[in-house]
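User: Could you walk me through two proteins back to back? I'd like the raw sequence and the structure tokens for each, with a short line separating them so I can tell where one ends and the next begins.

Assistant: Of course. Protein one, sequence then structure:
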Amino acid sequence: MASRTASRRLPALPLLVLLIALAGGAMLVPAGFALATGEGWLAALFGKAALITLAGAAVLGAATAGFRPADPVRSLFLSLIGAYAVLPPLMALPLAEAVPDLGFRGAWFEMVSSFTTTGASLLPPMPETPAAVHLWNALVGWLGGFFVLLAASALLAPLNLGGLEVGNPRPVGKSAFAATPIHAAAEPGARLAAQFRLLAPVYGALTLALWVGLLMAGEAGLPALAHAMGILSTSGISPVGGLEGGQTGRIGEALMLVFLVFALTRRALPGTARADAATGRRRRLRDDEELRLAAVVVVGLAVVFAVRAVAAQAGGVWTQLDAAQAGFWAGLFTAASFLSTTGYVSADWSEGAAAALRGAGLGAPVLILGGLVMMGGGVATTAGGIKLLRIHALWRHGRHEMEKLLHPSVVAGGGERKRHLRTDGAYLAWLAFMLFVLSLAVVTGALSLAGLGFEAALVLAIAGLSTTGPLAGMAGIAGEPGLAWLGLDDGARAILAGAMVLGRLELLAIVALLVPESWRR
């Protein structure tokens, strides 16, 4: 009876207090791992930080137990923003002591990068950095991915935000469960708890399944777990410096490629698909616009890479076949990884697609991959970027306008949803696109004022706003100077940390929730 009463009271606590408590509890995982691997000093650091964080959460919980906000939806969204301000410093406490070379500011940047699923890591790979530290980094990224997924399905989707407004004719800012304005949306805390119970087992089971698959493919325990977490959360975090340092080869990459589908369409997860139940429409996965667009882009680039690899390869038929195979697979996996804003690079990439790009005179692969991460993955998923559904809406609108040039009196059909995609949906998609471009210009300008060159500032700004940290290292693959996160000063890192949070929350959703009058047309 007492446990049921406590479970009912937990959702009534402020969301930020619950998140602080969750962060403190999560620190016990690397503490236990360090203790099991004989690193008692590291276990003590994480245990001490966990105790401090949990004690702080208990005090805040007791002080705010009776708090009832006048506007629950806006209060909840402000808590989401506050999480990116409060949690990274707390998560950085054990990291700053475990890796003294980072210092607290470096540890804070590392945690912002992980919690926003950017994966712009400053940590050297194992064994230079203790395994428990890499486990903590991967765990923070994994929790950050689930946090984004939960917020998208429990708050943004019912209010028709976060990209769903493009394909849903329902008015923006109105609840799917109650025909009331945004200021009076009912029981957001209960909805958040319900979505947590629905998504947490699925998210954990998928991560476990991929981890087991990578173990069976020959990967070591911690790298396999970190890569599984990195795929499901799209953080791209690796304790061994990427897939090139792994041991699974194409078998492991094929497993990862399958699980990347969950970042390309929300319909692959039951909780996010249920968020659209209010529209009364359930389409098959193969009919999903985002997945079909992703398939066209990824397969098309893979074919181009394979053809270019053959053209750049001298030798006999078998040599050219090997080059085509390596180029196709490298292009397929890496393009899908960057389109989902994960950022893992295929182990075949350096000898396949990158060589083909150089040989064909197409320039640095960072330009092509930068375009992919700007497109982004599916709406209401863990992926960042502009989102595929918005790109699809803009494409449909452009195609319809081209048809009108030839046939001015043409009337396009397809039902209410497709008409919405071509009209209001395209308008909202264009607005989101322009806000992303404006943010990109502001961040690039700020980094240039901080002392970076234009090209470096642009690539880093794209990496931050799309939450794809590994993009910054891709310039080095093409023979150009690599863009190392370690080489940035504190001012540039602070700008990029803000860009990561902005890219994760989306400026469009912030404007809609905090200034709902701006949506009136």
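----
Protein two, same layout:
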Amino acid sequence: MFRRIACLFVIAILFGSSLAWAQEKEEKVLALTLEETILRTLKNNYGVAIQILGPEIESLAIKKAKEQYLPNLAFGYDKRDTESASYSWLDAAEQVQTEYYSYDAQVTQLLPTGGQLGVSLSNYRNFTTSKFQTVNPRYSSTVRLDFRQPFLRGFGTKMTNYNIHISQNNYEISQNDLEATVADIIDVVTQAYWNLAYSIENLKVRQQALDLARDLLAKNQRAVEVGTLAPIEILSAQAEVATREADILSAEAEVKNNEDRLRTIINLPDEEMKLALPIKPLDTPKFEERQTDVNEALMTALENRPELKSLRIGLKNQDLTVSYTKNQLFPDLSLTASYWSPGIAGDQIIYENNNPLTGKIIGVVPGGIGGAVADALGFKYQNWSVGLTLDIPLNSMFSKAAYTQARLNLEQAVLRLKNQEQTIYLEIRNGVRNVETNYKRVQSYRVARELADQKLKAEEEKLKVGLSTNFIVLTYQRDLSNARSSELRAIVDYIISVSSLEKAMGTNLENHNITIDEMMSVS
């Protein structure tokens, strides 16, 4: 009984250690699906990180442009003490001293029409030693409303919001640039992923071919031993084994090269890069027919391609710039209007017989700044003015360089848009043609592989009864191996061509359920 328990315990330990070894061995492989590979690449790629900052920067530019509508506050304070010689005994005995200080506050607001509205409150106090003053010190307060509206240069919301519109358009352009970068990366990752998958499967095909050659060599060696086959027949089988071993080495090198390329594209952390774990694609190449109409694909591309979106928005920017620079050529004809209310207060000096010339002060009625402010805010004294000003800048009248440059930039933007549309048209036609061609290649290579397999099986049966030779069997084995590799290569090329077509149509982000908003929120 004890021996049984001990045996079971030893078996459990051995099984547990073997399982742990298997798990440890499995952990040394970086297994990834295509979607995981794309997401890891987008997370680690420096190009995406750079482009993600673009919308953030442009959003700040929008906020900065909108700050023009924030009220502008201004405060001022001034103090002066002056002394001057007295040239008349009526003014002062020896010198005239004056103490003056003022303080004011002003709020100005830009209007969407290009006008400006301002409200100000200014105050001052003035004290002097000069004789015959009836109010000393004197306080003054003035409330003032100022309005200015241009009618030519700078008139209208389009001119006032020029920088805001440009910033908003640049924000959309930065989003489209980010989308274009992500689309390029998805296409690059897809190609690298499936090329690695092909090289791994191709290595398996080459290994199967080597196994067939070795199996035939073993059969020949047994036939030589029993005397049913001449020893010279072994040489061709041995040569074929050596050739296929060399093919294995080339296939293994191709796997390593594709692993390094995909590892670099993903931009793995330094720790994982140093480990250089083998990458195992979990997705297998699948052949699924895709029907695509050239005209439908072209319409989709014209609607979705981020490059076209950016160029169209850039065209709007250039059109805005043309309008703005044209407006700057106009004279400045502006309506100005003001409304103000002053208030005066201070210490009222009472002279004998109400005659300041007597110089005899018999009393003082105190007064302060409060009375002046009350009169000003109460609009006790109402004043207004209206005027028109015309400013004709001769430099803008005789020099239209900025406007001409803006028009040329607009024409250039139109040409860029048309050129990009032609390029996309060519990409779509080539993409659809590649998909159709690779689809037919897969079908042809599949038939070729099936026929090669049938030929090999038939030739092996003939070899068993002595109606064939080792050379022919080895040749058919090589044909089958090449047919399998060609079929696999055609399937991978078909998958890659479909991915490239999706990129050309501007739909690969949608097909992989990736949105720009999610990209920006993750950052």
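Residues 57 and 171 are 8 Å apart (CA to CA).

Let me know if you want the two compared in more detail.
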